[in-house]
What we know:
The complex is a heterodimer of chains A (480) and B (449). By secondary structure, chain A is an alpha+beta fold. Chain A contains nine helices and 23 strands. In chain A, 20% of the residues lie in helices and 40% in strands. Chain B contains ten helices and 19 strands. At the A-B interface, strand 1, strand 2, strand 3, helix 2 and helix 3 of A face strand 1, strand 2, strand 3, helix 2 and helix 4 of B.
Amino acid sequence: MSFDVAKMAVEAAVKAGADYADARTGTDETESLTVRNQEMEGIDRTTSSGVGVRVLAGGRWGFAATSRQDEEDVVRTATLAVEIAKAASRRPGAPVQLSPVEPVVASWRGSMEEDPFTIPLEEKVALLMEGTRRMQTVPGVSFAEGGLDLFRRSTWFASSDGAAIDQVVVHSGGGLEATAIADGDVQRRSYPNSFRGHVKAAGWEHVRTLGLIEEAERTGREAVELLAAPECPSEVTTLILDSGQVELQVHESIGHPIELDRVLGMEEAYAGSSFLTTEDRGKLKYGSPLVSVTADATLTGGLGSFGFDDEGVPAQRVPILVDGIFQNFLTSRETAPVVGQTSNGTSRADGWSHLPLIRMTNISLEPREGSLAEIIGDTKDGIFMATNQSWSIDDKRINFQFGCEIAWRVKNGKVTQLYKNPNYTGITPEFWGSCDAVGGREEWTVWGTPNCGKGQPGQVGRVGHGTSPARFRGVQVGVR
Amino acid sequence: MPGLIGEDRFRAVAAAALELKGVDGVEVLYTHEWGGLTRFANSVIHQSTFREDTGLRVRVVSRNRAGVASSNDFSERGAREAAASAMEMAQVAPPDPLFPGLAPKAAVIDVDRFFEGTAESTPAARAEAVHRLIDTCPSGFVAAGAFETAAAELGIANSEGQVCWSPGTLASLTTVMTGGEHGSGFAEAFSGSVEHIDPEALGGRAADKAVRSQRPVVLDPGTYPVVLEPAAVATLAGFLAYVGFGGRGYIEDRSCFSGKAGQQVAAPSISIWDDGTDANTLGAAFDFEGVPRHRVDLIKDGVFQDAVYDLRTGKQADRPSTGHGLPAPNTEGPFPLNLFMAEGDASVDDMIRATDRGVLVTRFHYSNIVNPIESSITGMTRDGTFLIERGEVVGPVMNFRFTQSIIDALTNVSFVGSKAELASEFFFSASRVPALKIEAFHFSGRSDH
């Protein structure tokens, strides 16, 4: 796959009647390993290549993609994209207007020191075997699981405006999960984060820093300890979240509501819309003055980092919330003119076979001051929750309920009683409005969310979030 | 428009992988999917797509060590390269002491689920159907949704001589109509054939809900009797399958049904089974290991029977595979993809008439597990939530958050609907469930719309 196929597709689309066309050829490669109780659960590689063609014809979008790469099939696919766009005019409506973008000829590579695909499989297997072995040394651990996930996406983008951009991103990550089962109860602990660990835009050097061996026994021990712990009590209290759970909180209750396509009703039937309106910029109090959030596609290590989005718009750093006040949506070339702007470069596709949609880049809660220990030390009474376990939020991103793996009572500045099955619920602006502490740079971690769902047909987005631990007042915990 | 690649070509490409020397076994899983989706919002067609892709997933086994490699290069070269890559991984993998072997040669029931008119549906035809649906949208309201027509081939071939191949089609139309004063209504339809999709009827249902759900009032959270329409019941059934019916969780004591075989776990009116051979579902009549599917009773007259198994968990539990294997490498274990819930004899109107004070729920949104061992989940109501008083729907209410054990809900079923409806979350999966009346259902919070 290369520019040749992308340019061939663009030319065929224009010849078939497209007013504008762009095409992405691409190859996605993955390698995934899972070890459970020192036995191989799964080891697999995938490769997927193809071309996707997007056209504007008569003011409407059409998109078609195929894994077939010979000229006849590429031309057929491009022609079909135009046919799809023309069919859309069966319903009347205002024609799509694109915000301008300078066509760029460029090449971009994500940062990576050590190509994870060249590391011997034996080394990867040995890492997971030792991690699971150490978890299994803890009496009561029923299942000790470790996983590694490697991802490389190579993309060649061409447009009828003359853009030609090739990019390569590499993502690497891994994690551990211990499960303890007894007397009809099942408890889990994960490290460094749940749902297969900590993935970053980086090479194998990231996996080397994860500490999977060093943290294995503690992970197993906490899973077993949870079995004997009481349920998290139901009360309204002060809530402290670790940075991993703040990541999920930012993703669901800030990252999604600020997507302008949701605000404009374009996702209404599936993922839903947003409580935000186009009139809220610069006015709406989204959170307390400690809450500043940035969308930054240039952030080192973020899964949402790139040189150019899938419309050829350069990566940008955009203020979303400044001292609690809502400032900007995530926009695309199609949607930005609605709010009088040009695209801020967040139109991204799940590989060659999907239409670009507005997706999060790296949506980060900017760090303030202090360590987690200092936040806890400054808390008279409350609950400290860590590591996401489940999530649910309504179609306007207002009412949420999130569960964590583990919690502790904080009493007079000290972590005391352990609790299992903790969860909490809230209303988005009220919750962020109650934030009275955000940890400092030393606690700030760039997390990866490689499984964000959106769109029809369904797409999986790979996005990032930089977060520190944070504290919230007057939160309902222990929902039953 | 692409068409079927066909069994003969699949066999030829698979043979290139199966000829791999020096290993104990090879399995080739083949997929070929194509189709279009016409998406609309604000009563305008805004995102229309078409996609064609192939997949070859080759599993190589050597001395009880397995490796898997996938490629969408559907060619003899692609098959050989995937096999070589899988063999490389198998050589470094530790042995799996529970490896059950590949599926033996066995006959598969021939179920015809391929409708040419659906596979060949054009962008213009989908746009016309969407146009007709949107035309039912009341003044002051807008329609959003998607109309998909898709086709797929699924094939399995392995070195034990098992070969299966099956084509199928799917047509689905969903819509949400919004407008007026916070009105919102939803309707959906799934079928193997596009001929069974009626855009006007579907639009009419959504429009009626949207108009009637305007000006919702606040109802305090709490425990209420509920009437759940089939789309809402499909959410409960799907999550119950996830936390309960898989053989791996069941034998590892992680299932909400572990240790409960033969026990009453639901009202006697509740029977749930899985049957990939039933004409009224979607997908293939064999699983992703090439094992033939057949009916498996999961809950019968409220009594839990057994879980579903693949080859590996079947070996662990000393049972045969029930034909519920997922694609290798499968770290989740077997899963039922073709659920059915037995119909009763009540209409939704009967259920409403029998309710003194309760809530009518059209569907749930963004549900997730709270506690798997208790089958407890949370989620929101959406697109049509109504208060019932003295046997009548009296008006819309603000959407609720629910936090509820599914088993407890099914234990409190008092009426079962007489008409099951098909719902599908992805291509090879579907459930067919009726409406239910549940006497106690817990709403733990509410939203502002």
